[in-house]
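Hello,

Our lab assistant flagged a job as stuck in the queue for most of the afternoon. It eventually completed. Since we weren't sure the result was trustworthy after the delay, we are filing this so someone can double-check. Below is the sequence as submitted and the structure that was eventually returned. Let us know if re-running is recommended.
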Amino acid sequence: MESDGFALTCAGEIVFRMPWDQVQQIAGYTRFEKLTPKLCLAFSASNRKKDQVVVHSGLRGWEALCTALPTFFPNCDRDWQKKAAHDSTSLDAYAPVAAVKPVFTVNPTIVWSK
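-- returned structure --
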């Protein structure tokens, strides 16, 4: 993460870079993969899917990114994590969905929008 944006890297190589000033919207949600919940942030630079990057709570740098959001997006929803999080005690309710669709999302919330 830098003062002008953030990047995703793999084996030291940058695979995606998102400048802060190109972000049009940030959405938060919980993504389930085989009934394992992960908190996610989707950064969109346009309405096109290819101009979106999704990061999740399992990635290195997640905490730093979440902490920095109010610095770069002062009007962001500071309670987005509570809104997007899922109560892991009620996972059984999603078992039928997971049987048909192993990756699905719940609790979408807009964190910030231009």
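-- support follow-up --
The delay was a queue issue, not a problem with the job. The result is valid. The helical segments are 62-72, 80-84, 95-100. The chain has a mean pLDDT of 83.
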